[in-house]
Every structure is written in structure tokens, then in C-alpha cells.
Automatic annotation (TrEMBL):
Residues 525-637 form the PGG domain. It is a peripheral membrane protein. This is PGG domain-containing protein. It is found in: Cell membrane. Signal peptide: none annotated. ANK repeats lie at residues 79-102. The chain crosses the membrane at residues 307-329, 534-553, 573-593, 613-638, 650-677. It comes from Stylosanthes scabra. InterPro entries: Ankyrin_rpt, Ankyrin_rpt-contain_sf, PGG_dom. Keywords: ANK repeat, Membrane, Transmembrane, Transmembrane helix. The keyword Membrane applies. It comes from the Eukaryota. It holds the Pfam family Ank_2.
Length: 697
């Protein structure tokens, strides 16, 4: 195959699926199918698999000699991938079936990364291809096909890629993989502990999202069923314009509501037959039928399920009418389904784990793995146990479940002698902390633990690091939450820990002052600038309010001095608004001046300064609104009767700048208000601690 023209022709024929022309070239030269015709050293069969030429592959293999067939099936490209590797990676089930049926030994072939076709199908989430290869492998108990050179198994990779439905099936097929450890000392539970966004406790949601999340009921169906239905919908071409999607969604919801009222949760015969046909077409060899739907409705009486479904559909319809759209709800529903599946995988892994069971060797929970020699001594990699990683990441569900199954896990420590309590406090994880604070196991000893530097839980609560852990803007409010976090931890500690010294001879209070010094300066600058800006506005409003309050619309009676317009509704509104504007503007000015003259001590950021700023903003908004109202009420008397109703839109337009200013400041206002009433800080999961798999000792 030294002729470049012949190679180019083979490439072109294969891409276009011209099997007759390829077979003609093969008849002239039986080595043509073994030629490397791309830079990646792909053969004709490789390229056909790449482009998904299913019929091309089957026809080609049926029309060549058996000897050539076996030869080209085992050819590897520059990455060591055989055609079966590529078919498994792409999830082409028919090609996988065709190739594995002809030579089952191909399933055990490894590429240059040590990956088998079975491994590639799993890590790319190609469920049908995975089960097809699983069924055709020579030994279904061969665990060697499930791992690569670095020790990562298909369970590690499916969890890392968040294919939780497939991970559950793998646990059923290969139960011993639950305790597998890669060269970094990480088990599948370690990998799951590094996925905080897959759990509800570590997922940030706004109030409305959280409300919808709690209201949604997700059917506990098998992932295969969901995927098959999804694929079937994707294949159906839409018969309506894209801008009609909202109308179509509304009609769909209406039909679902009618179905819920008429049939409840029972599926129609057509749907049942559809599911049966789909399951027959799939290559899930070990499954005879799709998993039955196990819903959460069993906690309610049977007649309540229909009502709940109707309420859900009605809520979606109302949101569609309001312009929110069903995609937002579907996104939250997918998130909840992912959380449920991740929790199932977690429960299975913990139930099957032998982390804390004596087996005559170092437990995986301690994470010690010999990785080499240097100067005659062992190099040892130490990996934190899953409960320690979960505490860092804020996965309350995992910490609680591990302690429930293995109470001895409370004794786990990392390389710095920090246990689960110390790590949760150090990484500002309020949910984990509250759960441990209520646990009798943790209360007895874990809260009294000190690390290798002599730091207690209070020392770590007092230590401020570079990242911003709290869900609030600005250094001042970060400082407020830091002080509240310190006080919260302090109240849970024994009194004798208040004055405890670490190895540097520092108490927790001294650590707090020294590590928060820069944050205090930044917070003080922010408060000063904010107070200065707002005090200028308050002074201007106070000046206008004073001038307005002394002016009398229409003037006084020359004999009695009584206002001529007294008793009219507009005049009363003017008088009250002017008084409120003057009082509130002066109050806000005094509050902002008190912020400017503050000493900016650490404890001042907890309540005193935020309260003054909150009250100052409240009175400032009130004074501005009152000034505008008093102006409009006074101006109303000088407008002719014919124009009085025409000026109302102008009055409304006059209030727009103030309304815009108030809307811009609302997020800060709400953050200040919530901080005043919330005792436990709320963690921001945008700044999760970075976890390294291990480090050398």
C-alpha cells in the first residue's frame, strides 16, 4: 500500500460507505484492509467505526476471509485502540455486538493507556455497549477488565463522570469494586466525596429554587428507562416552529393533568408496549425487563397521589403562564434526580465498604499506600478517608451515613491530626457542623480534639484563609459572618477551651485578631465609603425636607395664620410626608455619621455596624420617598383642574429614578437584613476547598 492514491481512495470509499469499491480494492490486494491510512494509523475498519457505518462494517466482515477478519479486528492505531475500543467508546451497540461475537478475546485487549473496550464503554457512560460487552466476555467474573494501569476502575470513572445509574449496575455486577483503590489511594467512595454538587446539602439554591425543589416528586425509575425514553424523544422530529414551544409545553401539561385525573399513576397499554419494545431492542443482556417504577408516593394514601400530581402540573402551568417556562422546572427536577441517584450510590458503597473492618492490613480509611523508594526509605502517600473529604466538602449526607454505619469513623484524622469536626469547622461547613453538634458520638470526644499544631476547634474557627466562604458581598459582611461563625463554635466548646494555647502560644481570640486584621481594614474601608456616600445624600434630602416642611401650599390666612388649604386631603398628605422626610433624613444622617466615627473593632462587625447601616439605608429610602410624595402633593394645588388627572403619569415617572436606586440596593439590603436574623452562616459553594488526592511524606 505504498500508492498514496490507493490509500486516499480507500479513505474516501470508507467515509462515504461505498462497500463495493472497498471490496474491489481488497480483491486486488488482500493487505489493503490492514493498511494504516490516516496519521493516527487507523485502518479501514477503524474509520468505518468512527463514522458509524454499521452496515458497512457488517458487510465488510462477512465478505472477507476469516483469517483477514481476525487480523484486522486486532489491529491497533497510534493510541493502541482496536476497532472494538472505538465502537465501545462511541457506544455503537450493533458494531460492538458484531465484533465481540466474532472474537470475544477482543474485550480483554488493552490500549496504550491500559483501557479495555469494556472500560471505555463504562467511562463514557455507554450503558448498552457496556452490557453488550459484559455479556460476551469470556469470564464475567474477570475483574481485570474493569481497571486501567493507574488502578482506576470502571466504578471510579462512572462516579467521577456522574453516571450514577450505571455505577449502581456495576456495583451489582462487580461488588468487590466497592473496595478497589487506585494508585493514589482513592476508593470509589473517595471519588464520590469529591462531588459536592451531586448532593443537596452542598448545592446552592435560591429560595424559589429550593421551594420548587422540595415540592417536586421524582419517580425513582431506572436510569436505563429514562435514557431510552430520552433517546426516543430525540429521534422524533418536531412538527412545529421553535417559537411555539411554550404553547406546546402548555398543551402537554394540560394532557398530563387530564391523564392524572383519569388514570392516576397507571401507564397506558400503549406506553407499556412501547417500553417493552424498547427494552427488547436494547442490549441489556442480564435484564429481562425494565425496572418497575418505585415512586415516593407510597408514603401517602393511594388517593393522594392523583391530587399531588395535579398540584405539580398546575404549578408548572402557572409558571408557564407567568413566562418562567418549563425548562427551569425540568432543570431543577434533573438536579433532584441526580441528588437521589448519588445518594443511592453512596448508600451502596458505604454498605459494601470494609473501610473499618479488620482485614490484617492497613485499612483504606487510613489511606496509606507505598508508591516507591527513595534513599532506601519508603515513600508513602497518605489519603484522607472519605468521611474527612466529605466534611471538607460539606456533604452532610455522607458524613451522617458513615457515622451511622461505622461510628468508629469519628476517630479518623488526616496528616495534620484533624478529625471530621475540625475539618468541618476549618472549611466553614455549617450543615456538617450542626449535624455533628447534635451527635452524641461527636460530642463526647471529637469536639475536644486538637491538631498537630495544638489548634482546637475554636482556633480553627478563628483562623481566616484567603478564600471567601460566605454567601455575602463585601469584606464587611464577610467579617460579620466570620465573627458569627467564631461565636457559634465558641458556644459549643467547653469553657476551659476558651483560653487554650496552641503550639505558638496563641489563644483562639489572639488567632482571630491576627488573621482577620486585613479583613477588618477592608471592611472598615467599605463601610466608610458607603457611609460617606449615603450621608451626602441624606444631608441633601434633609436640607430639601427642612425647606419643604416650612413652606405652606396656598399660604396662611393673614388674620389667623391658619393655612388656607387645611383640611384638604392633598394638604394633609403634604404635611405628613414633609414631616416624615425631615425626621427620617436626619435619622439616617446621624446613623451614617455614627458608622464613620466607629472604632471598627472585630466584634463591631457582628451586630452594631450592620445594624446601623441597615437602619441608615431604611431611613434614607423612606426620606427620599417622602420628599417626592410631599413635592407631588404640594405641586398638585398649582395645577389647573383640567390637567390634574394628566399629571399623575408625570408624578409616577418622577418616582422612577428613586425606584431604580432602591432596586439596585435591594440585594445589599436583603443581605444585611438576613444577616441580622440568621444565627448560622450560609456557606457559598463557589469557593470549595481544593482537594489534592494525596501528598508525600
Amino acid at each position: 500500500m505504498e500508492d498514496n492514491t490507493e490509500i486516499e481512495n480507500l479513505f474516501s470509499y470508507t467515509i462515504k460507505g461505498q462497500i463495493r469499491e472497498v471490496l474491489e480494492v481488497y480483491e486486488k490486494n488482500h493487505l489493503a484492509l490492514e493498511a494504516k491510512i490516516t496519521r493516527l494509523e487507523d485502518t479501514v475498519l477503524h474509520i468505518a467505526v468512527y463514522v458509524g457505518q454499521t452496515n458497512f462494517v457488517a458487510t465488510l466482515l462477512d465478505n472477507i476471509s476469516e483469517e483477514v477478519c481476525f487480523a484486522i479486528l486486532k489491529l491497533q492505531n497510534s493510541k493502541g485502540n482496536t476497532p472494538l475500543h472505538l465502537a465501545a467508546e462511541l457506544g455503537n451497540v450493533e458494531i460492538c455486538y458484531n465484533l465481540a461475537k466474532r472474537d470475544p478475546t477482543l474485550i480483554s485487549w488493552r490500549n496504550f493507556q491500559g483501557e479495555t473496550p469494556l472500560f471505555l464503554a463504562a467511562i463514557h457512560g455507554k450503558k448498552d455497549a457496556f452490557f453488550c460487552l459484559y455479556r460476551h466476555q469470556e469470564s464475567q467474573d474477570d475483574y481485570s477488565l474493569c481497571s486501567k494501569n493507574n488502578g482506576d476502575t470502571i466504578l471510579h470513572c462512572t462516579i467521577s463522570s456522574e453516571y450514577f445509574g450505571l455505577a449502581l449496575k456495576i456495583l451489582d455486577l462487580y461488588p468487590n469494586l466497592a473496595d478497589s483503590v487506585n494508585q493514589d489511594g482513592l476508593s470509589p467512595l473517595h471519588i464520590l466525596a469529591m462531588k459536592p454538587n451531586c448532593f443537596k446539602s452542598s448545592t446552592r439554591m435560591e429560595s424559589l429554587d429550593r421551594f420548587v425543589y422540595n415540592c417536586l416528586i421524582v419517580d425513582d425509575v431506572s436510569e436505563e428507562a429514562v435514557e431510552l425514553h430520552k433517546n426516543q424523544k430525540d429521534k422524533q422530529k418536531t412538527k412545529y416552529p421553535m417559537n411555539y414551544s411554550t404553547c406546546v409545553s402548555f398543551v402537554s401539561l394540560f394532557m398530563r393533568a387530564a391523564k392524572a385525573i383519569t388514570f392516576g399513576k397507571h401507564t397506558s397499554k400503549a406506553e407499556a408496549a412501547d417500553e417493552e419494545n424498547l427494552s427488547r431492542k436494547s442490549y441489556l443482556g442480564y435484564e429481562k425487563e425494565m425496572a418497575k417504577k418505585e415512586t415516593k408516593y407510597n408514603r401517602f394514601p393511594p388517593n393522594c397521589e392523583t391530587i399531588i400530581r395535579i398540584l405539580i402540573v398546575t404549578t408548572k402551568a402557572l409558571l408557564l403562564i407567568c413566562g418562567v417556562g418549563s425548562s427551569w422546572i425540568d432543570k431543577i427536577q434533573r438536579r433532584k434526580a441526580r441528588h437521589m441517584q448519588a445518594k443511592k450510590v453512596m448508600n451502596e458503597l458505604i454498605q459494601r465498604a470494609t473501610l473499618y473492618k479488620y482485614s490484617g492490613r492497613t485499612p483504606h480509611g487510613k489511606g496509606k499506600t507505598i508508591i516507591g523508594m527513595q534513599n532506601g526509605t519508603h515513600l508513602e502517600r497518605r489519603t484522607d478517608s472519605p468521611i474527612l473529604i466529605a466534611a471538607k466538602m460539606g456533604i452532610t449526607e455522607m458524613v451522617e451515613k458513615i457515622l451511622d454505619i461505622f461510628p468508629v469513623a469519628i476517630q479518623d484524622v488526616d496528616s495534620e491530626n484533624k478529625n471530621v469536626v475540625l475539618l468541618a469547622i476549618e472549611n466553614r461547613q455549617p450543615h456538617v457542623y450542626n449535624m455533628l453538634n447534635k451527635s452524641d458520638i461527636a460530642k463526647e470526644s471529637a469536639f475536644r480534639q486538637v491538631d498537630s499544631q495544638g489548634n482546637s476547634a475554636l482556633h480553627l474557627a478563628a483562623t481566616y484563609k484567603s478564600h471567601k466562604p460566605w454567601r455575602v458581598p463585601g469584606a464587611a459582611m464577610q467579617m460579620q459572618w466570620e465573627y458569627k461563625w467564631y461565636k457559634l463554635v465558641k458556644n459549643s466548646m467547653p469553657p476551659n477551651f476558651y483560653e487554650r494555647y496552641n503550639n505558638k502560644g496563641q489563644t483562639a481570640k489572639q488567632v482571630f485578631v491576627s488573621t482577620h486584621g486585613q479583613l477588618v481594614k477592608e471592611g472598615g474601608k467599605w463601610l466608610t465609603k458607603t457611609a460617606e456616600s449615603c450621608s451626602v445624600v441624606a444631608a441633601l434630602v434633609a436640607t430639601v425636607a427642612f425647606t419643604t416642611s416650612t413652606a405652606i401650599p396656598g399660604g396662611p390666612d393673614q388674620n389667623t395664620g391658619v393655612p388656607l388649604l387645611r383640611g384638604r386631603p392633598a394638604f394633609n398628605l403634604f404635611a405628613v410626608a414633609a414631616l416624615i422626610a425631615l425626621c427620617s433624613s436626619v435619622t439616617s444622617l446621624v446613623l451614617f455619621l455614627s458608622v464613620l466615627t466607629s472604632r471598627f473593632q472585630e466584634k463591631d462587625f457582628a451586630v452594631d455596624l450592620p445594624r446601623k447601616l441597615l437602619l441608615g439605608l431604611t431611613t434614607l429610602f423612606t426620606s427620599i420617598a417622602s420628599v417626592l410624595i410631599s413635592f407631588c402633593a404640594g405641586h398638585y394645588f398649582i395645577i389647573e383642574d383640567e390637567l390634574k388627572y394628566a399629571v399623575f403619569p408625570i408624578y409616577a415617572a418622577t418616582c422612577l429614578p428613586v425606584s431604580f436606586f432602591a432596586l439596585v440596593q435591594l440585594p445589599l439590603y436583603f443581605d444585611l437584613a438576613l444577616a441580622m436574623f440568621r444565627k448560622v452562616p450560609q456557606r457559598s459553594y463557589k469557593a470549595l476547598p481544593h482537594y489534592l488526592p494525596g501528598h508525600l511524606h
